[in-house]
């Protein structure tokens, strides 16, 4: 399956092991271009290699699909300095890995992972595998780009490691790809047997309370989240959920991150920040309207949204915040003065793209830390809004609404905001949806909006099957 012949592989491992040992490296990375395989097959059959972690990432144009399985090195920190701690460890890893040649974008050693919404979140059972930050370098990763399909395999070595040890490991990956790389996963959706919106009346009361506080205090916007618990007749198959999300996608990202028995999955329209050399991209996404059925209804909804004072106000907090934050890191920044419409499956949003050029010393982790949470997920002012969220929300956000993505050793990468998401464990899923609350919000309308935000994920999970 792998393109490299046996002799070439022997030569590669002999050469790189010798080089790596000579400069005291602890890891070796091998990248190969291969014939097409479907990354979802690798994602689906990961346990055949005895792995318990897997990651799936695809962006809007499918210009980058990543599937990582197994952990070579984990990085996780529960301190409040998790961004700088992860960055430090990532740099250290970079110094310890032997790479034969400069790799194409999206291949080679990549760390996949994310952060929790709050630095010091409550010890929530649902999120116990995830913590405040979790990243890992996968043992095996498939990358699909416009340039083809690539396999990255990463190996840990020590003084005793022999070429035969590495070849044995390599053969295991090769056999796995030979056997499963083309095999169609069995897509079976489990039936939803119960759907329960968590404390709907209490949530509406919380929105009223937030609006009330805005009258007296300096708080101007807060984003409140609510949850829906769904139970299924059998274990939820996350391959199937990804497949459904991909088949009906019109969001920027489909992401899945599994640690042990828990999977966080998000079909999110929202990018927090991406970086390629000095170019960064972000976006302002806030202000929503439900889509209509006909084209005329959608045009009407889009016009309404573009002219809605309340939604434009909600959106402006995000634009101002992202502008003020990125200005500190960029020598060029381009943000259009008026928002446009972004359409997802069930909603229209106000959307303003952001492009910039950062100073040479600026890192992706620095930008993530500075931006998160934007007023699209926290509120404005940030501290007041976050304080109120913690007071009013009974369910921990975990990784909902937080940065999730990947980074390479050149410091390039892409981080999305984990909204329109669910946490899946066995036959249960908890879905998350939030909305911006401002002084002229109507609690029932916000309730409706969050209800619409649940739908694409609920649908992909199979929760709307009997209602279509
Ligand atoms: C907080 C969420 O959406 C954000 C992104 C787009 C529009 C939003 C809004 O109109 O309230 C939210 O700011 C969510 O989907 O959970």
From TrEMBL:
Keywords: Isomerase. Pfam families: Chorismate_bind (PF00425). The keyword Isomerase applies. Transmembrane segments: none annotated. It catalyses: chorismate = isochorismate. It comes from the Bacteria. Residues 201-453 form the Chorismate-utilising enzyme C-terminal domain. Belongs to the isochorismate synthase family. This is isochorismate synthase.
């Amino acid at each position: 399956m792998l393109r490299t012949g046996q002799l070439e592989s022997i030569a590669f491992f002999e050469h790189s092991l010798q080089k790596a040992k000579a400069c005291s490296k602890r890891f070796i990375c091998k990248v190969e271009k291969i014939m097409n395989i479907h990354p979802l097959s690798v994602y689906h059959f990961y346990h055949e290699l005895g792995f318990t972690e897997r990651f799936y990432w695809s962006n809007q144009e499918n210009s980058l699909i990543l599937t990582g399985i197994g952990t070579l090195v984990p990085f996780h920190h529960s301190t409040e300095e998790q961004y700088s701690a992860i960055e430090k460890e990532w740099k250290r890893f970079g110094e310890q890995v032997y790479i034969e040649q400069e790799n194409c974008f999206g291949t080679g050693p990549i760390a996949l992972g994310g952060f929790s919404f709050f630095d010091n979140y409550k010890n929530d059972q649902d999120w116990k595998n995830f913590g405040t930050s979790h990243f890992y370098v996968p043992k095996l990763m498939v990358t699909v780009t416009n340039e083809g399909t690539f396999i990255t395999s990463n190996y840990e070595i020590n003084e005793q490691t022999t070429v035969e040890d590495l070849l044995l490991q390599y053969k295991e990956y090769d056999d796995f790809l030979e056997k499963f790389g083309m095999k169609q996963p069995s897509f079976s959706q489990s039936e939803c047997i119960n759907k329960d919106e968590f404390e709907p009346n209490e949530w509406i009361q919380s929105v009223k309370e937030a609006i009330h506080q805005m009258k007296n205090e300096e708080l101007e916007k807060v984003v409140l989240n609510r949850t829906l618990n769904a139970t299924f007749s059998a274990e939820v198959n996350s391959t199937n959920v990804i497949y459904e999300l991909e088949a009906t996608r019109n969001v920027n990202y489909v992401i899945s991150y599994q640690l042990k028995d828990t999977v966080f999955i998000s079909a999110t329209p929202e990018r927090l920040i991406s970086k390629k050399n000095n170019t960064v991209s972000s976006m302002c996404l806030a202000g929503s309207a439900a889509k209509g059925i006909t084209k005329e209804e959608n045009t009407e909804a889009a016009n309404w949204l573009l002219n809605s004072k309340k939604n434009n106000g909600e959106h402006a907090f995000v634009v101002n915040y992202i502008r003020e934050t990125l200005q500190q890191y960029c020598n060029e920044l381009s943000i259009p003065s008026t928002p446009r419409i972004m359409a997802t499956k069930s909603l229209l949003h106000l959307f303003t793209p952001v492009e910039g050029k950062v100073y040479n010393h600026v890192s992706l982790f620095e930008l993530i830390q500075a931006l998160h949470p934007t007023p699209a997920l926290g509120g404005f002012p940030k501290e007041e809004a976050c304080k109120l969220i913690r007071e009013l929300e009974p369910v921990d956000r975990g990784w909902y609404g937080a940065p999730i993505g990947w980074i390479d050793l050149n410091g390039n990468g892409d981080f999305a905001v984990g909204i329109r998401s669910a946490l899946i464990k066995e036959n249960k899923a908890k879905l998350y949806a939030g909305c911006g609350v401002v002084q002229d919000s109507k609690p029932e309308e916000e309730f409706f909006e969050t209800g619409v935000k649940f739908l694409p994920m609920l649908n992909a999970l199979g929760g709307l099957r009997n209602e279509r």
